[in-house]
């Protein structure tokens, strides 16, 4: 297979333990993510990579392919790399397990972006800031790109910095945490130790940049919200029950 999507599904969560098994919509949170990714055209298979048998049993209930991984992985990237090491695929797509509104078209756009740039090791997505969203919010990661459309830097700070108030208004883009990797690049990245910028900003993608990986960047329109807290999950449940979300 050429393209396989892998969804890392860790059970533990500091702010919302066991959130991937929350099911007040009638479906597990991880099930919403899986079904959305399955609607994408380009992945030929979708696999859930977990560290917990409870998630594995839930996957079996809704018919998802899943793999058990080690419990000591420091990141979702390391978790999918363990699975990718046993797969024959040119491109591995990483979709976070707490993104129930992920757009299937964005998964396809990600793969197309990587295919369009043969020199890139991986690809990711960015979106313009919504009106009213605070560009200084450190929980929203920003990204800037070069003239070829590759990522220059990711930061929790507002980048670029506008030095002159009366100068040209910078365009701010927020990073969306979806990635497509060439398989060998993913395996190589997972073997590298955390780097200084990564440790400073707590952004794993900076490890790739610090080691010279080329990251292709595609811009999309996105209004989805990830689930980090019980409050965000409750808002998702209410939107789902009201019929405001696309199925």
List the helices and strands and how they pair.
Elements: E1 3-9, H1 29-38, E2 45-50, H2 53-62, E3 65-68, H3 76-84, E4 91-94, H4 104-116, E5 122-128, E6 142-145, E7 151-155, E8 173-182, H5 183-190, H6 196-201, H7 205-210, E9 215-219, H8 230-241
Parallel strand pairs: 1-2, 1-4, 2-3, 5-9
Antiparallel strand pairs: 4-8, 5-8, 6-7, 6-8
What's the main sheet like? Answer: 9 strands, mixed
**Overall 3D form:** globular
CATH class: Alpha Beta
Give the CATH superfamily.
Answer: Spore Coat Polysaccharide Biosynthesis Protein SpsA, Chain A
Give a verbal description of the structure:
- This protein has 247 residues and is an alpha/beta fold.
- It has a single domain, classed as Spore Coat Polysaccharide Biosynthesis Protein SpsA, Chain A.
- The protein has 8 helices and 9 strands.
- It has helices at residues 29-38, 53-62, 76-84, 104-116, 183-190, 196-201, 205-210, 230-241; strands at residues 3-9, 45-50, 65-68, 91-94, 122-128, 142-145, 151-155, 173-182, 215-219.
- Strands 1, 2, 3, 4, 5, 6, 7, 8 and 9 form a 9-stranded mixed sheet that branches.
- Helix 3 packs across helix 5.
Kindly summarize this structure in a few lines.
With 247 residues, this protein is an alpha/beta fold.
Features:
247 residues, alpha/beta, nine-stranded mixed sheet
């Amino acid at each position: 297979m050429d393209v396989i999507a892998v969804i890392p599904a860790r059970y533990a969560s500091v702010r919302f333990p066991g959130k991937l098994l929350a099911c007040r919509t009638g479906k597990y949170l991880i099930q919403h993510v899986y079904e959305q990714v399955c609607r994408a055209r380009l992945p030929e298979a979708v696999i859930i990579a977990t560290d917990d048998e409870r998630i594995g049993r839930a996957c079996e209930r809704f018919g998802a392919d899943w793999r058990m991984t080690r419990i000591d992985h420091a990141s979702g990237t390391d978790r999918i790399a363990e699975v990718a090491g046993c797969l024959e695929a040119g491109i591995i797509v990483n979709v976070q397990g707490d993104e129930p509104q992920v757009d299937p078209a964005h998964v396809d756009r990600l793969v197309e972006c990587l295919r369009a740039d043969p020199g890139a090791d991986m690809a990711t997505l960015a979106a313009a800031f919504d009106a009213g969203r605070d560009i200084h919010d450190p929980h929203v990661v920003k990204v800037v790109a070069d003239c070829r459309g590759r990522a220059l830097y990711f930061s929790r700070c507002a980048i670029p910095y506008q030095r002159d108030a009366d100068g040209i208004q910078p365009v701010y883009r927020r990073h969306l945490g979806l990635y497509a990797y060439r398989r060998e690049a993913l395996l190589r990245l997972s073997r590298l130790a955390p780097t200084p910028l990564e440790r400073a900003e707590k952004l794993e993608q900076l490890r790739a940049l610090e080691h010279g990986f080329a990251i292709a960047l595609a811009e999309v329109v996105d209004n989805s919200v990830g689930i980090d807290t019980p409050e965000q999950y409750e808002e998702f449940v209410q939107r789902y029950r009201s019929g405001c979300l696309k199925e």
